[in-house]
Amino acid sequence: MSWQGGSFGERATCVLAPNASPMTLDGTNTWVMREPDARRAVVVDPGPLHEQHLDRVAEIAGPVGVVLLTHGHADHSEGARAFAERVGCHVRALDPTFVYGGEGLHERDVVELDGLEVRVVETPGHTSDSLSFVLPAERAVLTGDTVLGRGTTVVAYPDGELGAYLGSLRRLRDLAEANELEVIWPGHGPVLDEALPVLDHYLRHRAARLDQVREAVAAGAVEPRDVVRRVYADVDERLWPAAELSVRAQLEYLGRPSTH
């Protein structure tokens, strides 16, 4: 069944952007959050610069206090400034390039709006500027592209870095194990109701891929594209360019930096 977004918990609505693709799954998840009975909303990842999508987000959100970005990839951030100008608010992000009208975001920041509390957790790896947002009242975490609702994410080398990504997964897993997180609200794909098993799966998957890359190199694969052909043979070839980014990150992590 395809993912359509919808309302989750007492505080969140996911508005699905019309930019489905092999890389974005059903499209980008734009999250609208507000405390029950509050006037203003927080919007996370307005998505692409698509007027009908931004119109729909504005209609669902009503008054908006702030826009937050999980990271700067265009499918999450391209429409942010136009949307913020439309509704009269600031854009906050880790990368100063995407900040508009106010201050950025950093580790341990707490964004509070009309009673809603959003805690900022730096989770680099997919990109260097990747953030996750924890809503303690929902025991939920918005992960952007760090954890997806289906499949696994790309380590977007060279900006993305595998060691940092593994550390981010472990950090989120620790929060889930401590019962601070129960549900994952991702940047693409459906909501995941059990955070801890998902994060365990992500860590096992990365360990298995690293073993496969080691085996491919030992078998004589020299170029990243050769590793992709061996390790990602069961993956849609349309995704091989993205897989090559992850392979380059894996090779660097294993001490075999790619130079081609």
Helix content: 25-40%
| Biggest sheet overview | 6 strands, mixed
Termini separation comes to 40 Å
Taking all residues together, what is the mean pLDDT? 95
Q: Which sequence of SSEs, written as H and E, runs from N to C? A: EEEEHEHHEEEEEHEHHH
Instruction: Kindly report the CATH topology.
Output: Metallo-beta-lactamase, Chain A
Structural class of the secondary structure composition? Answer: alpha/beta
Number of helices: 7
Description:
With 260 residues, the protein is an alpha/beta fold. The protein has one domain: 4-Layer Sandwich (Metallo-beta-lactamase, Chain A), CATH 3.60.15. Helix content is 33%, strand content 19%. It is built from 7 helices and 11 strands. The chain has helices spanning 51-61, 74-77, 80-87, 162-177, 195-218, 224-231, 240-253, and strands spanning 6-8, 12-16, 29-33, 41-44, 64-68, 90-92, 110-113, 116-122, 131-135, 140-144, 183-186. The strands form 2 sheets. A 6-stranded mixed sheet has the order 1-2-3-4-5-6, covered by helices on one side. Strand 4 (41-44), helix 1 and strand 5 (64-68) form a beta-alpha-beta unit. Helix 4 (162-177) packs antiparallel against helix 5, helix 5 crosses helix 6 (224-231) and helix 6 (224-231) packs across helix 7 (240-253). It is globular.
Key features?
11 strands; Metallo-beta-lactamase, Chain A; six-stranded mixed beta sheet; 33% helix; globular; 7 helices
